[in-house]
Amino acid sequence: MLYQYFCEKCQKDVEINKSMHDSGRIENCEACQNELERVYTPAHIVGARVESPEYNPGLGCVVKGKNHRQELCKKKGLVEVGNELPDSMAKAADTTLKDKLEKSWEKV
Fold it and tell me: Is 61 helix (H, G, I), strand (E, B) or coil?
């Protein structure tokens, strides 16, 4: 992982590549041997939502957000998969199984 440090004496930003296991190890400046101060930055994590326009290879165009993606899917006659809630998926599976069992008993 790449860790950012700052040397107060030299006023330089330094990036050091080391394993997570060694993340607590104290680092010294190569120029003046002063102890470096670790710079903590917020994580840049974005969820599954579309935060900014991005190219969607499935739709073959740029999608501006969730509503825009849904509009495009509707226009093209497509159905999004993979966004169902687990409860609705289980309910659908139970209904399908129930229908199959009822039909098989009718034949007997």
Answer: strand
From 45, 47, 29, select the one nearest 37 (Cα to Cα). Answer: 29
Clarify whether residues 33 and 54 are in a common domain.
Answer: no
pTM beyond 0.70: no
What domain range is 32 assigned to? 2-39
Dist. CA 10–CA 33, nearest whole Å: 10
> Can you give the length of the chain in residues?
108
Whether residue 26 is found in the same domain as residue 49 = no
Q: Is residue 21 part of a domain?
A: yes
pLDDT in tens, 50-76: 467 888 888 888 888 888 888 988 888
Question: How do residues 6-64 score in pLDDT, each as one tens digit?
Answer: 999 999 999 999 888 888 899 999 999 999 999 887 655 455 554 678 888 888 888 88
